[in-house]
Amino acid sequence: MNVRYLFLIFLVTTAFPIHSHSQSSIESAEASFRYVHSTLRTFRETGRLVNNPGVDGSDLEAFIELLDFYYDQFSSGFNSDSAMCRFYRDPDNGRMTIEERAEISFSLLRELPDRIERYITVDEDFQNELADEFGTFLLDNINQIKIASLSNQQLPSSEFDEAAVISFIDSACI
Length: 174
Known about the structure:
Elements lengths: L1 H14 L7 H24 L13 H16 L7 H7 L8 H10 L4 H23 L1 H10 L16 H12 L1
Helix pairs in contact: 2-3, 2-6, 3-6, 4-5, 5-8, 6-7
């Protein structure tokens, strides 16, 4: 009986590892953010939905509004209105070196584990709302397209060295 119990525990822990979120979840969140950012940027520049995942004309406005909402959700800690960017751009901080200003600005973000948790949660909400509002066909198409999406912005979902912090803040705040 004990052998069966141990074998069952082994199977369960192997099949369902104990992680709060897997690495692929943060990768999904990063890809979703790149997709949202690049799609909105391209739409605003061209007025077209490039690589249309299956959005028809009558749903276009609602789709763009959804992308806008989730861009704001992903970037709330580092968008141009964030405390991080306000501090970085504040002329009163001009006496600091760019490295000092960037370090202090970046420290205004949540701690890394909290940021990762937030991005994963936002990504889950984004995917659920896409499926609810537009169907799983559209969600599946976006999940395929987002893998190849490119963006000049990224989520601060890992440790950055000094140069990466400056580059990230410049791309987010300027």
